[in-house]
Design brief:
GTP Cyclohydrolase I, domain 2; 4-stranded antiparallel sheet; 2 domains; 38% helix; elongated; alpha+beta; two-stranded antiparallel sheet
């Protein structure tokens, strides 16, 4: 976002705060700027998340030749995503398990993909689908399971105000996805 658009957003957010009766004096004087800068950070991938073109990635998705038959599972990858409905974050952990088809991802690449996809407002279901679609496109595994578990701050802060509530979304892809599902889910649960 260029500086002129950013300043326009800051003024607009200050107007919203004033309309709500919120004080912007003292320590809160920079709140509109902080909110706009936070939103810029949390939406930094919004124009490129839908692509599968490696040239659009902010990192190189490194892969390696693999001829074994091990299932690869990565767990505990934290994320924070703005919900497209309330612009409040849902926060949680992702797990990805796949049965390689002659290719494996570099160990840091799956967490980087999750971080990159998390920088665009969406729903947890679509977020999980996008992770699976990306991995399916770039690795072509014979089986894939992606699971996200998240707390939605819109549920914690408003409505039912239930902070213990978590939503779990599980996506299964590939011709052997259901064949490796139980093994991957057991690994996720045990981690």
């Amino acid at each position: 976002m260029n500086s002129r658009k950013k300043e326009s957003c800051i003024r607009a957010y200050a107007k919203i705060c004033k309309s709500l009766g919120l004080s912007l004096s003292g320590d809160a004087s920079e709140t509109p700027r902080r909110v706009v800068e936070m939103l810029c950070e949390l939406t930094s991938s919004v124009k490129k998340v839908w692509t599968n073109d490696p040239a659009d990635l902010p990192f190189k998705f490194t892969t390696f030749l693999y001829t074994g038959d091990s299932v690869v599972t990565s767990v505990g990858m934290e994320f924070s995503v703005l919900c497209e409905h309330h612009h409040l974050p849902f926060i949680g952990e992702a797990a990805v398990g796949y049965l390689p088809n002659r290719k494996i991802a570099g160990l840091s690449k799956i967490p980087r993909v999750i971080d990159w996809i998390s920088k665009a407002p969406t729903t947890q279901e679509v977020f999980t689908d996008r992770i699976a679609d990306f991995i399916l496109h770039h690795l072509n595994p014979t089986g894939l399971v992606v699971q996200t578990k998240a707390k939605h701050t819109c549920v914690c802060a408003r409505g039912p105000r239930s902070c213990s509530h978590k939503t779990v979304v599980t996506v299964i892809r590939g011709q052997d996805g259901f064949g490796v599902k139980d093994e991957i889910l057991a690994t996720i649960k045990g981690a």
